[in-house]
Amino acid sequence: MLTIKRILFGSLITLLLSISQGAIAVEKEYALKAGFLFNFARYGEWNNQANTASSFTLYSPDNSFISVSRSILKGRKVNNLPIENVEVSLTETNLAQCNILFITTDTLESWQQLNNKYLADVMIVGETDNFIEQGGHIRFFLSGGKIRFEVSPDKLKLSGITMSSKVLRLGRVVNN
Length: 176
What we know:
Elements: H1 2-43, E1 44-46, E2 56-60, H2 63-72, E3 77-78, E4 81-87, E5 100-103, H3 108-112, E6 123-126, E7 138-143, E8 146-151, H4 153-158, E9 161-163, H5 165-168, E10 172-173
Parallel strand pairs: 2-4, 2-5, 5-6, 6-7, 8-10
Antiparallel strand pairs: 1-9, 3-4, 7-8
Helix pairs in contact: 1-2
InterPro entries: YfiR/HmsC-like
Pfam family, one: DUF4154
Organism: Shewanella frigidimarina (strain NCIMB 400)
């Protein structure tokens, strides 16, 4: 009986450690992606952005991502504007203040149901296969164990956003 308890306890500890390591891996990945988004913001230009904005806004419907992004980007600024990380429901139509919308794998379905007319002047970044073909501007992907990105300058331009050539050289350019 004592041996069975030890085996069960050992299995439980192993399970908890693997779950915790998985959560840490996701947090690390989100932290790296938040850093990428910060640089996209720094090197992007929103042609129709009002000069009256009080913050640069990063929206995502994924609470986990927003939590990590808040801690990583705390105190950072884009064009002298503080970055505001906002968890948003994609059923809302009030996305007018959004500069960057990050769609995670878990939130893709709700984004696909959103009417894109609410996303003018918004840089749309995601992490799923075919994201750019589905209407996104930038897609993260893993290559050689590293996070990389592909970008569609044409789709960004249609949304009133231009990206610095410095950034475009670092990613895989997708022409539509």
